């Protein structure tokens, strides 16, 4: 366990009217958020770190590696019950935030259930977990990073690689924009229509792995996102909805 020293970042506006805490180094902001939750932090508290040693993706075998102080590594604490659409609502907010800094003609795409792409490459990931009747919304967004591990250098990108590091927003600018979009997306009634418009591979024939079984793969036309967050795929003229699994291509 890494000794953690937090400081409240008063220069960052939080539309949830809750603290924003910065950690120079931590295991993961999700774990730190669990500890803050146990200490009684208010709804809407946001935690971000300069570096985390145990960042991870949607499955336990996937790490989220990031150089120090280059990307946004954060977790938002929401004191409300989890729902099947939470990850996608947070993903939509991340997509809208990135779009606001991209040049005309360049837009993000949301890959169900938790990735954000720019020009076909991953720029952000979302990981939501339940804790004590609350939701911890973890976000990892590539902002300033321009060099990636060889294993992902052809599949990853960042805001800096699109607009240039000198034009990238600071954390003081990006975080309030993200939190504002999250607040709006959590209350938006037609959120699934908006995310369906920016859905990766929508209208295309896709291969989809149901659950965790590598041999359980179907093909169909990706049609959109249901109001409850399910992925809609048309197979043999019948639309089916999936709540778990992975889009392969």
Automatic annotation (TrEMBL):
Gene3D superfamilies: 2.30.30.100, Bira Bifunctional Protein, Domain 2
Protein's UniProt keywords contain Zinc: no
Catalytic activity: biotin + L-lysyl-[protein] + ATP = N(6)-biotinyl-L-lysyl-[protein] + AMP + diphosphate + H(+)
Residue ranges annotated for the BPL/LPL catalytic domain, each copy included: 5-190
Enzyme class: ligase
SUPFAM superfamilies named among the record's database cross-references: Class II aaRS and biotin synthetases (SSF55681)
Enzyme Commission code: 6.3.4.15
InterPro entries, A to Z: aa-tRNA-synth_II/BPL/LPL (IPR045864), Biotin_CoA_COase_ligase (IPR004408), BPL_C (IPR003142), BPL_LPL_catalytic (IPR004143)
NCBIfam families membership: birA_ligase
Name of the protein described by the UniProt record: biotin--[biotin carboxyl-carrier protein] ligase
């Amino acid at each position: 366990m890494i000794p953690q020293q937090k400081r409240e970042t008063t220069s960052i506006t939080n539309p949830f009217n809750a603290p924003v805490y910065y950690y120079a180094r931590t295991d993961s902001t999700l774990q730190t958020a669990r500890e803050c939750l146990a200490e009684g932090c208010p709804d809407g508290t946001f935690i971000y770190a300069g570096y985390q040693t145990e960042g991870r993706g949607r499955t336990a075998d996937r790490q989220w590696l990031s150089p120090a102080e280059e990307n946004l590594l954060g977790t938002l604490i929401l004191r409300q019950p989890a729902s099947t659409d939470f990850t996608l609502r947070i993903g939509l907010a991340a997509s809208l935030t990135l779009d606001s800094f991209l040049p005309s003609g360049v837009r993000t795409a949301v890959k169900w259930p938790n990735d954000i792409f720019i020009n076909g490459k991953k720029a952000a990931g979302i990981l939501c977990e339940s804790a004590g009747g609350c939701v911890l919304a973890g976000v990892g967004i590539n902002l300033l990073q321009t060099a990636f591990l060889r294993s992902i250098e052809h599949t990853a990108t960042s805001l800096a690689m699109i607009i240039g590091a000198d034009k990238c927003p600071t954390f003081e600018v990006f975080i309030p924009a993200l939190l504002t979009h999250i607040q709006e997306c959590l209350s938006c009634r037609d959120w699934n229509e908006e995310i369906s418009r920016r859905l990766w591979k929508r209208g295309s024939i896709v291969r989809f792995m149901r659950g965790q079984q590598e041999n359980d793969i179907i093909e169909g036309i990706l049609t959109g996102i249901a109001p409850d967050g399910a992925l809609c795929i048309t197979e043999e003229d019948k639309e089916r909805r999936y709540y778990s699994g992975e889009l392969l291509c």
